[in-house]
Amino acid sequence: MPQATASDADSASPPAAKLPLLTLTAMVVGSMVGAGVFSLPGRFAEETGVAGALIAWAVAGTGMLMLAFVFQSLAVRRPDLDAGVYAYAKAGFGEYLGFFAAFGYWASTCVGNVTYWVLIMSTAGSVWPALGDGDTALAVVLSSLGLWAFFWIIRRGVKEATAINRVVTVAKLVPIVFFVILALVYFEPRVFADNFGGADYAGSLFTQVRGTMLATVFVFLGVEGASVYSRHARRRSDVGRATVLGFLSVFAVFASVTIVSYGILPMDEIAALRQPSMAGVLESAVGTWGRVFISVGLVVSVLGAYLAWTLMAAEVLFVAAKDDDMPRFLRRSNAVDVPVPALLMTSLLTQVVLVATSFSDDAFNFALNLTSALSLIPYLLAAAFAVRIGSRDDPLTEGGRTSRRELVCALVATLYTAFLLYAAGLKFLLVSFILYAPATALFVMARREQGRRLFSSGELVVLAVSVVGAVLGLVALAAGWISL
Fold first, then answer.
1. Can you tell me the distance from the alpha carbon of 274 to that of 123, in angstroms, rounded to the nearest whole number?
2. Which of 23, 198, 217, 361 could cysteine-pair with 202, CB 3.0–4.6 Å?
3. What is the DSSP letter of 325?
4. Which of 423, 35, 367 is nearest to 209 (CA)?
5. Which stretches within 78-157 are classed as H helix?
6. Is the pLDDT higher at 213 or at 412?
7. What per-residue confidence (pLDDT) applies to 161?
8. Neighbours of 221 (CB within 10 A)
9. Region for residue 9 given its phi and psi (left: phi exceeds 0; alpha: psi -120 to 50; beta: otherwise)
10. Is the torsion defined by CA of 305, 307, 310, 314 positive or negative?
């Protein structure tokens, strides 16, 4: 591998800012509590009743808790690996699949950021009709202005951005907790009982539960937030603690928001509500001020989550470039430890997807589902890596082979993420491949910079699968078999 030269001097990064446990936990909570929680009542009511929701949260909670334990274990067992999802996939399954994990995770955050802007504009659209459901030309222009304003804020430094996130994390939890309390006050047992089994349109119980899976993935994205910032942690053990503390906190919030809503309105009425559906549920209980209160809380929440997700996306590209799995220009950072080229690429992709998604029939739900689907391959590879180091001797694993409990958690997390791929359906997998395949150009660029062979025989197989998937996806879109 070529040695660094004087021309690479600008790529050398300053010492990483060190973050304490509280800040790391806030990053996890801030990453997960975003647009998704405000859309949960409507998303669940479209698919299932109370019984299905309880089962769905039990499945999702167990699966994601196991995944949280996986990240906790890997942070301790493999402290040499930074950037979480990407690093674990590469260590376990090679550079090309590691690249796929890095790109997939990064792309999922960019698409997820689009849902935030769409939901903000849709919320404002209830009083400013020109914004529609967040997908009009005016909505795209205003969202774009906000996107680049955040680029400027984050560019000023990680410390400044995380300080803002700590304040925002506390502020945005207040309206959500207030919603749960008010919903319990106005809770009607008869309405709850009528919603228990689901409506005729919901189908079998298995179908109902499967239909909620992508929504649960979306709201839990960010569970790996602390591991992504492992290089910034003051103590390595804080990474695992922050992951589990953050997950348990938001799980209680998400499940409560969903279940109490079934005691306010019939599920078909909840399903028909304009997003954010939480605002509509509270409005039906307390009046117009309830919608206004939740709408203000949503804007604060979404902007905080956007901040955290953008930081995580840039961090993944930065570390991948430092490991020579992305082009060298992405490894540069400024004097305040912000990887500006990676941050710029993140903002550019978000901008492109923001414009493209505006042509979708349902911009918010499509972006939400695509975000979830893109994140599943990185999650699956990370969980499978935990299984791998738990089932064989690995000289790099601290403390020797992982414990039986850690191995069981990794196995459950792997099975859970595999089930999620099935639940996502063929449509979103094919659309994901449309993004994955051309991204290989970045991998090729990095290999050429190093004067290395472009692909091994095994990597060519992975490339062929991604290209075939992308071609099938484009054909399906052109033929109208699937639609945005």
1. 9
2. 198
3. S
4. 423
5. 85-93, 95-125, 137-155
6. 412
7. 53
8. 26
9. alpha
10. negative
Rounded CA-CA distance 321/328 in Å is: 6
User: Which pair of structure tokens corresponds to residue 109?
Assistant: 């955050």
Q: How far apart are CA 368 and CA 115, in angstroms?
A: 6
Backbone phi, psi, residue 232, to 5°: -95, -10
- Asked if residue 353 lies in contact with residue 111, where contact means CB atoms within 8 angstroms, the answer is yes
pLDDT, tens digit, for every residue of 386-398?
888 877 766 666 6
Asked whether 298 and 123 are in contact (CB, 8 A), the reply is: yes
pTM of the predicted model as reported, rounded to 2 decimal places: 0.76
Structure tokens at 126: 């209830």
Fill in the amino acid letter for 71.
F
User: Helix or strand or coil: residue 99?
Assistant: helix
Rounded mean pLDDT, 261-266: 92
pLDDT digits (tens, 9 = 90+) for 54-81: 998 988 888 888 888 888 788 777 777 7
Tens-place pLDDT, residues 362-373: 777 777 778 878
What pLDDT was estimated at residue 424?
75
Q: Which two tokens stand for residue 435?
A: 């993004």
The owner of tokens 């938001």 is 250
Residues 123-162 have pLDDT tens digits of: 888 778 888 777 788 988 999 998 998 888 888 765 555 5
Return d(Cα 434, Cα 332) in angstroms, integer: 28
Q: Answer with the residue of higher pLDDT: 248 or 471.
A: 471
Closest-CA residue to 214 (of 357, 50, 90, 367) = 367
Residue 14 pLDDT: 47
Distances (CA, A) of 93 to 89, 97, 169, 452, 462: 6, 6, 35, 19, 11
A 10 A CB-CB count for 398 gives: 12
Comparing 46-60, 199-213, 402-416, 445-459, which segment has the lowest mean pLDDT?
199-213
Distance separating alpha carbons of residues 137 and 380, to the nearest angstrom: 37
Q: Report helix angle 237-261 to 158-185, nearest 10.
A: 30
User: Helix 205-220 crosses helix 237-261 at what angle (to 10 degrees)?
Assistant: 130
Distance, in Å, from the CA atom of 243 to the CA atom of 262, rounded to the nearest integer, reads 30
Question: What average pLDDT does the segment 40-50 reach?
Answer: 88
